[in-house]
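Lab notebook page, bench 4
Experiment: in silico fold of construct C2
Operator: M.H.
Input chain length: 165 residues
Purpose: comparison with the prior construct
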Amino acid sequence: MEKRPRIKLIPTLGDIILELIGYLSLFTLWYLVAINYYKLPETIPVHYNTAGNADNFGGKETIFALPIIATILFIGMTILNRFPHIFNYPVRITEENAFRQYANARSMIRYLKFIVVVIFGVITFKAIPNSAGTSEGLGEWFLPLTLGFIFFPLIYYVVQAFRKA
């Protein structure tokens, strides 16, 4: 493996705002589960098919799986974001482009952290009324929108990596 420069990056105001929004979203996800847990019936939807319809059910305690997984992913990506020199890049990292590439990659991870929490939040937000029978499924647009919110920005950041090479 090539020896890449280690650079201390100072987050921009946009990075700080996105990071704070991510933490706020994670807190909101936990809050949503906490205030609704005792109102849930004993059986709730735990899995949805590609059409957004519930296709598996479990005990109401499984609602905690969503914020737990979101928190683990959020913390994991937060830790990973401290080491941009170990990321995979589509271009060769040099002393000249390291700062730009690292900043771009760290912004992408921050965005993905936020989107992961939002996706888990939407699933939780929809699972609560679904379990009460006042709503049905996630909706047919959930999967295409989720994929779009993940892959379009990824493509954007990869294109930026080539432009900043």
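Observations: The chain is about 60% helix and 5% strand. The CA atoms of residues 121 and 129 lie 13 Å apart.
Next step: discuss at group meeting.
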